[in-house]
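Reopening this one. Same input as before:
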Amino acid sequence: MRWDQPWVVAVYRRLPRWVTARFVRWLMPTYPIGVVAVVFNAAGEILVLRHTYHEPPWRLPGGLVERGEEVTAAAAREVWEEACCQVRVEGVIDVQSTPYTFDVAVAALLTEEAPFAPGPEVSARRWLPPHEALAILPPEQRRYVETALARRMR
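Same output, byte for byte:
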């Protein structure tokens, strides 16, 4: 069974977070590692995605690292799968333990952008100036953007 099927996402979206967290832990009995990407384009804008199953819906691209996969490869894969963008990962910028995953944040640069097609997980893709991205992202992801911006200014 594939987990990116529309009906799986529809069920997942309607379940409370504590249920989905237990489900993920059941599927991945080890502590899952998540990856989050702060992606910049040539204009210095940040990629944000409207996820269908999160509140608030606008978030940075990311997902779970697959068994045996490098974090940077997982970040590039997730950005491609969710946003139809190819990136060059510049490096790890932050890590954070959450109740559900151990998240690794990376900074990345856009190398190629394909036409976006909405899917069961992501309904929209936008490039925003950093101040606008910070205004709509959840607090835990604002930290990653602020860190990425500080490192770019060095």
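So the earlier flakiness isn't reproducible anymore. For the record, The chain has five helices and seven strands.
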